[in-house]
Amino acid sequence: MTRTGTWSFATTAGRVEVAPDEIRIRKQAARVAETSLRTLANGRVPPVGREVGWSAVASGIALFGALIEWTLGSGQGIGVAAFPLATALAGVAVTALQNARVDVPARDVRHVEFSDGDVVVVHEDDGEEAETALRPRSPAARNDAAFAFRLRGIEVRGADDAEGVSRTVVDAPEAELVA
User: Fold this and answer.
1) Tell me, what's the pLDDT at 179?
2) According to the model, what pLDDT value does residue 82 have?
3) What angle do CA 158, 9, 27 make, to 5 degrees?
4) d(CA 147, CA 142)
5) Quick check: 15 and 9 in contact, CB under 8 A?
6) Which residue has the higher pLDDT, 8 or 47?
7) What pTM did the predictor assign?
8) pLDDT digits (tens, 9 = 90+) for 21-80
9) Domain extent listing, the chain
């Protein structure tokens, strides 16, 4: 905990701060890229849509088109294929910057669910129910997340499977944060 009363924990994409009035999610581009490469190396599909949006898919399609034009065609259409590629890559950059920082007011958080290694913050966003998925870097970070949310008075669900998490969930309701 910091002097300002903020609890934090590390995720695979960056850092999450559980402040008295909001949850601050900070993603680092280098960490997102590293996590995506590790996920691919393990034979799984990275959560591209969650991190950078559909502009990443458009970039992949444009890159594929440029490669096909360059290898199979005469190469004269590469300029035509390069423009959509540059546009799609710019879209990825803009989306990544927009998603790099997410602030969720604490009053809008309904509960936090622990499932399949993820910590899912269920909150209200413009009158609709929204979910923000976070993946703690380690079991210790998962325990820290449960403890931080519980100390803020946020309902924690599905944290019974880990000994450290269930301990914090049981112990924390009686604790209070002294500012």
Assistant:
1) 45
2) 66
3) 105
4) 9
5) yes
6) 8
7) 0.62
8) 999 998 876 666 666 667 667 777 666 555 555 666 666 777 776 777 667 766 555 566
9) 7-28+100-174, 37-99
Does the domain formed by 7-28+100-174 have CATH 3.90.230.10? no
Enumerate the H helices of the chain as residue ranges.
29-41, 48-51, 54-72, 78-99, 139-151, 163-171
Give the other-Cβ count within 10 Å of 66's Cβ. 20
Query: Can you tell me the distance from the alpha carbon of 68 to that of 78, in angstroms, rounded to the nearest whole number?
Result: 9
CA distances from 150 to 58, 65, 94, 135, 157 (A): 40, 49, 34, 17, 10
Q: Are 156 and 112 in contact (CB under 8 A)?
A: yes
- Residue 23: its pLDDT value, please? 94
Give the position of tokens 């581009």.
29
Residue 119: left if φ>0, alpha if ψ -120 to 50, beta else—which one? beta
